[in-house]
Design a protein that fits this description.
Chain lengths: ~400, ~425
């Protein structure tokens, strides 16, 4: 009983490969470069994919937004907003609605500096500001993990230039942690914080998650909610429909609002899912481009490997016949070609690991990408071995079936 | 001799059709990947105003609070305040100067068949148009207005003119908007500055605005503050005028100098201006003015995202793989011809002749590779347009890019075929003649 690979003669394989130095070098270099690109590419793809997968804290699937722009002289923005919202909240297909200019993926909002202790030398925590009424939490689909929602009497209806500041706020758990360095949410409720060194407010509640509408500072989980509604001629409503009702609700709401008040127009009706796709467009593009490159590269590399193996089978027709005639069985021939392939891949992978790390070091230095975890190189290595074996399969099978009688034929 | 090499090469290629096609496609694929990514970088970083980009400058002044930075680590804000915009423009120290900001408001055409719409408005001083060489279809812009004087005039974009007036020459017509009656003084031609260097607050490839009005209209009608608005003072007061008098920045300030040599002079003026404002109690920080010309500004704003460079480097490696692949295919191709070449050598062809002929073959393969590459490039760029809808106005395969593609492909092909060609022409013919 012998081991499955005991009959493989490595020395002849080596000398056969060394006889075709040029072709061998080209192939090894292809494998090496492919490994470098695949491992780095897959790493970037997974990173971008993680970004796409992260949740915003709101009920993305059932929510849409629209803008109502009044354009006549006597258009009253506050009464219009109040009537609209009251009517929308009565609709049977709607969970809740709120007027807000910012929401996750809306792309703009103010950022405020929060402090536990006031003073320019104290620690500050940046947070994106949301202005919502008491229906806001329900309309966005946020989870309150401590404290209470705003009461209707706390909500300030203001024009843009009115700067009266609310006395209570709701913050996200991430802000609570950053400010008070604790995970005990209820201990944070009731504490006073200072905003932009000018105002103070009491924390009334804490929501689990609410991402910022945009992220200029790398703190996307930091948001603060004020009980305010700013009235402008152009108002934006965020509407949360009941499950599976999104499309019909959009049509219904658009029709209703369009007809109910002729002094304004309804525009920019978009579902959150669409907006998310727009915001993450560059990430989706990067994933697509990188996957196309990785696939094309794998095909090219596989073709190179298959081409070289076929060429060898063709060239060694006679020799294979002789080996078969001298007693080598079909498995031996098959093993010979696979062993040859594995040897090539190993050489390529060895150089490829160095190239992959080198490429990553370059990308880290130039474009501040994160460091490549070794797991991705390992993944690339496994892919390349599989690719090599698959590419060798057809030529090797062809070689296996060469008849021993070939030995007697002259070339 | 040259034509003989060509005809012989073509004969060889047609006899090894599939192998030749494989070589060309491999090259073409690599070239296409490289060219698609390169063209993105090339097009995104293209000089938007080539004949004067070195003398059109973006002005930044650091009016921020003493212990804070407008932009980390310690950079001045990218916009200026209303007061500074007005003062510097009125001082007329440059050939052209214009402050501008984005805003919006309802446009309500008097023709009842045209529905009212929310117009995205650029409020700007008139020298904006000649400074940025904005093309006019009809009429013209306006002169910079003095600080407290303004007419209700408007310049429309081509598409807005189409929408409101059906594309006719609407100069002199009136257009009700923002609750007032405006007179149309000009209509722009197609204009898609990409990148939109003069105001990138909504992104570098955001479409230009529908409507242009004099900057002072923004103050007069108290129009909303679009784009980036940043304030550091905390007690602003409640009315619109308080905003205009505050340290809030919202206005993009650009100037054009008569020649790049005048930059020092203008910098001195800015230095003097800020020093004078300091005596009025403004500008608590040390003087930190930044004056960047268009290309410096594009680099400062990193208009070409690092993604693009990463794609480009990966595509370069991809091309290298294709190159090595093509090289081994070429080696196979020439080796298969060993007998024939040996015969030609025996009949008197020297090594040089064989080498030239192989070289010719690689050049032809390179050309067909370029062709395949160009076709793939066109498809690839279409794909890019779907992936990045913002880029669709400027992504095209221009002449220089096509030439680069051709040159690169031939170069790659020759490079891939070089060693196999040398190998084949240094062969000892005797062994193959048996």
């Amino acid at each position: 009983m012998s081991l499955p690979f005991a009959r493989i003669a490595f020395r002849p394989i080596f000398s056969a490969l060394l006889r075709q130095k040029y072709a061998m070098t080209m192939l090894v270099l292809q494998i090496a470069l492919t490994l470098a690109v695949i491992s780095n590419g897959l790493f970037i793809v997974t990173q971008r994919f993680d970004v796409l997968q992260r949740t915003s804290g709101i009920d993305e699937a059932h929510t849409f937004v629209l803008t109502s722009s009044g354009f006549t002289e006597n258009f009253n923005s506050q009464t219009s907003m109040q009537t609209d919202l009251a009517e929308l909240r009565k609709m049977p297909t709607i969970v809740n609605a709120v007027a807000t200019y910012s929401f996750p993926f809306s792309g703009s909002s103010d950022w405020d500096e929060l402090q536990r202790v006031a003073g320019s030398n104290q620690n500050t925590v940046p947070a994106a500001s949301y202005k919502l009424d008491e229906h806001g939490l329900n309309a966005l689909g946020l989870t309150l993990i401590a404290g209470d929602n705003f009461s209707p009497s706390e909500v300030l209806w203001q024009t843009e230039s009115n700067r009266t500041f609310p006395s209570v706020v709701i913050i996200t758990s991430s802000v609570a942690t950053d400010l008070f360095n604790t995970l005990d949410w209820s201990s944070v409720v009731g504490k006073t914080i200072y905003i932009n060194e000018a105002h103070s407010a009491v924390i009334k509640g804490i929501v689990k998650q609410l991402q910022a509408p945009w992220d200029p500072v790398g703190q996307i989980e930091n948001s603060i909610i004020y009980p305010r509604v700013i009235t402008r001629n152009s108002a934006r409503y965020l509407i949360r429909a009941k499950p599976k009702m999104l499309q019909s609700t959009i049509a219904e709401v658009e029709h209703y609002l369009g007809m109910s008040n002729q002094q304004r127009m309804i525009r920019k009706v978009q579902s959150i899912a669409t907006l998310k796709k727009q915001v993450y467009g560059p990430d989706i593009a990067a994933i697509t481009i990188l996957l196309v490159v990785i696939t094309a590269l794998s095909i090219i590399a596989a073709m190179g490997i298959a081409g070289m193996a076929s060429f060898n089978v063709l060239k060694r027709h006679k020799q294979i016949g002789i080996r078969r005639a001298l007693g080598a069985n079909k498995t031996d021939i098959l093993q010979h070609f696979f062993a040859e392939n594995i040897l090539q891949t190993t050489c390529g992978v060895f150089i490829g690991c160095l190239l992959a790390v080198g490429l990553n070091v370059f990308l880290v230095a130039q474009y501040s990408l994160p460091k490549l975890p070794l797991g991705y190189i390992l993944l690339g290595v496994i892919c390349l071995y599989l690719l090599g074996i698959l590419a060798t399969l057809k030529p090797a099978l062809k070689a296996m079936n060469i008849s021993p009688a070939e030995a007697t034929r002259s070339q | 001799m040259f034509t003989y090499y060509i005809s012989l090469s073509l004969k060889n290629i047609s006899r090894q059709k599939s192998l030749s096609l494989l070589i060309s496609s491999t090259l073409g694929l690599g070239i296409a990947a490289c060219m698609i990514t390169y063209s993105l970088i090339h097009l995104m970083s293209k000089d938007p105003l080539p004949n004067k980009s070195d003398r059109v400058f973006h002005v930044q002044l650091d009016n921020w609070n003493r212990n804070a930075a407008a932009i980390t680590p310690d950079l001045p804000p990218e916009e200026v305040t209303w007061r500074d915009a007005m003062n510097i423009v009125q001082a007329k120290q440059a050939k052209y100067q214009a402050a501008q900001a984005i805003t919006w408001g309802m446009v309500t055409p008097s023709d009842k068949n045209v529905p009212p719409f929310l117009g995205i408005i650029r409020a700007t001083q008139g020298e904006f148009f000649p400074m940025f060489e904005v093309p006019f279809l009809y009429g013209q812009g306006w002169q910079n207005y003095p600080a407290n004087e303004v007419d209700y005039i408007v310049v429309l974009s081509k598409s807005t003119n189409q929408q409101v007036f059906g594309g006719i020459n609407s100069v002199g017509q009136t257009l009700p908007m923002l609750g007032k009656l405006f007179t149309v003084v000009g209509v722009l031609d197609e204009w898609h500055p990409s990148p939109k260097y003069f105001d990138m607050s909504f992104g570098a490839f955001y479409p230009p605005e529908d409507v242009y009005v004099p900057l002072q209209i923004k103050a007069e009608l108290e129009l909303p503050h679009g784009g980036n608005t940043n304030c550091w003072e905390t007690d602003l007061g409640d009315n619109y005028q308080a905003f205009l008098n505050s340290e809030c920045v919202n206005f993009n300030l650009w100037i054009e100098l008569a020649s790049p040599q005048n930059k020092q002079q203008f910098e001195d003026f800015l230095q003097g201006y800020v020093a004078q404002q300091k005596t009025l109690g403004r500008y608590p920080k040390a003087i930190n003015n930044i004056l960047l010309n268009i290309n410096q500004w594009l680099a400062y704003k990193e208009v070409v995202s690092s993604d693009m460079y990463v794609f480009f480097y990966l595509a370069l490696l991809f091309l290298l793989v294709c190159l090595f692949n093509a090289a081994s295919l070429m080696s196979t191709k020439f080796t298969a011809k060993n007998n024939e070449i040996a015969l030609r050598r025996a009949l008197g062809a020297n090594q040089q002749a064989i080498f030239n002929q192989c070289l010719m073959e690689t050049v032809i393969l390179g050309c067909s590779g370029a062709l395949i590459g160009l076709v793939l490039c066109l498809f690839g760029l279409e794909g890019i347009k779907t992936l990045y809808p913002n880029f669709s106005t400027f992504v095209t395969l221009d002449m220089p890019l096509m030439f680069i593609t051709l040159a690169l492909s031939v170069l790659c092909s020759v490079f891939a075929g070089l060693i196999p060609s040398i190998k084949v022409c240094t062969l000892a013919p005797a062994g193959y003649l048996k």
